[in-house]
Amino acid sequence: MCPMTEGTVRLDATAKRIIELLQEDGRISYAAIAKAVGLSEAAARARVQKLLDSDVMQVVAVTDPTQVGFTRQAMIGVRTEGDPMKVGDRLALVREVDYVVTTAGSFDLLVEVVCEDDPHLLDVIRQIRELEGVVSSETFVYLKLNKQHYNWGTR
Amino acid sequence: MCPMTEGTVRLDATAKRIIELLQEDGRISYAAIAKAVGLSEAAARARVQKLLDSDVMQVVAVTDPTQVGFTRQAMIGVRTEGDPMKVGDRLALVREVDYVVTTAGSFDLLVEVVCEDDPHLLDVIRQIRELEGVVSSETFVYLKLNKQHYNWGTR
DNA sequence: CAAAGAATCTGCGGTAATCGCAGAATTAAC
DNA sequence: GTTAATTCTGCGATTACCGCAGATTCTTTG
Known about the structure:
The structure is a homodimer. By secondary structure, chain A is α+β, with helices and mostly antiparallel strands. Chain A is built from five helices and five strands, in the order αααββαββαβ. Chain A has helices at residues 13-24, 30-37, 41-53, 84-91, 118-129; strands spanning 57-63, 72-80, 97-104, 109-115, 134-148. In chain A, strands 3-4-2-5 form a four-stranded antiparallel beta sheet. In chain A, strand 3 (97-104) and strand 4 (109-115) form a beta hairpin. Chains A and B meet through helix 1, strand 1, strand 2, helix 4 and strand 3 of A and helix 1, strand 1, strand 2, helix 4 and strand 3 of B. Strand 3 (97-104) of chain A pairs antiparallel with strand 5 (134-148) of chain B.
């Protein structure tokens, strides 16, 4: 439900290099990883598995939702009363919500939603505003996705 | 530089199912995909390759940046004058920027940045505000990542 | 410091997946 | 209806994956 939030794991240089390789190509073979980092194939495989098991990293397909039938995306800024984390965790349970962060600033939470069309988005917004602890919200409908990348390890 | 923005490709049910499988596990074997969608291994492999080549989908490792040495993340709302797309495309060139969307609402652009620390973030904000066409900006520093997922194909 | 314990690594054999290609089948274009 | 283009199947040859046994390194503890 909510991956990668618990205690920070210690990552050595090899682990970071492995992550970088998989950020460039999530389907690279274990053998290629092993050669690149100077380990045996079995060791490389074990390290990848450990990174996955500990939720430090996940390897997934990422798409532009508009190309897969979800034509309405939006970011919703939410102001809360009480504990923002609590509201955030509840928002995380909403199916259409794919991204929730607690922030400092004029919003307490930023929530990204993926919807099929405008009525669907409207319904999700209603759903969010009815949540206990939500004071107000502001919606930013996506017009164009200009950039999306995941390889900040490799710069 | 800027993937998945051009003309929408036609996706049939099989392509969608393949995407769903890879959203759950980016390292699933071609053989397993083939069995799941009822194609030969070679055909499944060709279709995955096509989806990757056409930038409909990318398979990548995704991490919580805070665990990999980038402790300061933020969303920056940007107001522009002139063509927001133009500014958005220029923002996409900034190294620390991993996500840019053009939006409707009180911001014209939403920009996510990944930084190593506060001074680094400060520098990136300065950099953004100096860009031609940027009128003002508002920064939302991330305190906690509550949810992050990529499998809206599978609901 | 020494010894026990835990974690991590290497090497390897059996199995399974990947790759590339030739030809068949299907779909699209005219 | 014919041509062209795309997509699929089948199948060797190659390569990668998996699990494990034993060696090595790192950590803990008396």
